[in-house]
UniProtKB/TrEMBL annotation:
Region (Disordered): 37-65, 77-108
Bilayer-spanning residue ranges: none
The name this protein goes by in its record: DUF985 domain-containing protein
CDD domains membership: cupin_YML079wp
InterPro entries reported for this sequence: Cupin_DUF985, RmlC-like_jellyroll, RmlC_Cupin_sf, YML079W-like
Domain DUF985: 177-306
Gene3D superfamilies noted in UniProt: Jelly Rolls (2.60.120.10)
């Protein structure tokens, strides 16, 4: 790096960065709350997240006081609660869909009532719905709505004689109630500065939103991705376009990913089964400064940190990288 480039501690101080739980230092620069996203507007990967767990294991993250002087760049963690070890955590509650007739759940058995229904009865029910569907000019892709089958299940749980809502019901009280229940406190996007000094890594983690990385200054940074199918992808952020580096890159939602300064690794095999670390470098003069933009907005409730014991089964062929990018456990 050129002599005119500021030291890492100077950047941390100037940009008011603080320690990040996944490694490195960050500062949120923008949270767009001008738009409040509803549940139906969130991507499908948010459907089971709800409002997010409030029982987080990371309550406070503090940087070592020496980091501003450039002598030490460390992260310390503190537990969010003093939990009694003899009391196990509560089991997650099943989704509400479990309380409806289960015949539509993949792999489940039909109810006795539906199993005993004749083919003629099922055909009659399908045609009754079809005549209403066609007469009302409802688009065919409405059948793919995530609310379609729950509606059918709800009606079936009541049985014959259910009186459907009226025109005025839909336009009035039901519309108002659905808007109120559909609201969620989720800004449309967030952006941060992120500084990763040499010798540090951004540990493997995943979030349910897309995250776009922007390279600003310093050493090139390698982004490591691990998909649910065990496939690995490495992308280098930097300004050397001829070498294949990118000034911007987007990590898809729900992908395990982490990052490390590219020059901290001397070499690695094409299949990721081995890697050779470079000699230790001064983190004050060797670091990467990037930006990260999430849409929908990032919230720590969504943040899931990987551990080597849990992630190794997914991709044992890249064990060296997993140990390099995860916390022991």
């Amino acid at each position: 790096m050129a002599s005119s480039t500021p030291k890492a501690s100077e950047v941390v101080f100037s940009l008011n960065l603080k320690a990040h739980p996944e490694g490195g230092f960050y500062s949120e620069t923008f949270r767009d709350s001008s738009i409040t996203l509803s549940r139906s507007q969130l991507p499908s990967q948010y459907e089971e997240l709800g409002e997010g767990s409030k029982d987080t294991d990371l309550e406070e993250i503090t940087a070592s006081p020496k980091c501003r002087k450039g002598k030490e760049l460390q992260i310390s963690f503190s537990s969010s609660q003093n939990r009694r070890k003899d009391i196990p955590p509560k089991a997650p509650q099943p989704p509400m869909s479990n309380y409806f007739p289960p015949r539509t759940i993949p792999g489940s058995q039909p109810t006795i009532k539906s199993a005993m229904a004749s083919k003629e009865m099922k055909d009659a029910a399908d045609m009754a719905m079809s005549w209403w569907w066609f007469d009302a000019s409802i688009p065919f892709n409405a059948a793919r709505s995530k609310f379609f089958q729950p509606m059918v299940n709800s009606i079936a749980s009541i049985g014959a004689g259910y009186k459907a809502p009226s025109y005025d019901d839909f336009r009035g009280k039901l519309l108002k109630k659905s808007v109120e229940e559909d609201k969620v406190d989720r800004p449309v996007s967030t952006s941060i500065y992120f500084l990763l000094p040499s010798g540090s890594v951004s540990h493997l983690h995943r979030i349910p939103c897309a995250e776009t990385w922007h390279f600003y200054m310093g050493d090139p940074l390698t982004v490591f991705e691990l998909g649910g199918d065990g496939k690995v992808k490495l992308t280098v952020l930097g300004t050397d376009l001829e070498a294949g580096q990118r000034p911007q890159y987007t990590v898809p939602p729900n992908v395990w990913f982490g990052s490390f300064p590219k020059r901290d690794i001397d070499a690695y095999s094409s299949d990721g089964s081995s890697l050779v670390k470079a000699p230790t470098r001064d983190p004050e003069t060797h670091y990467s400064l990037v930006g990260c933009t999430c849409a929908p907005a990032f919230q720590f409730e969504d943040f899931e940190l990987a551990s080597s014991s849990n992630i190794l089964a997914l991709a044992p062929h890249v064990e060296p990288f997993i140990h390099y990018l995860t916390l022991t456990g």
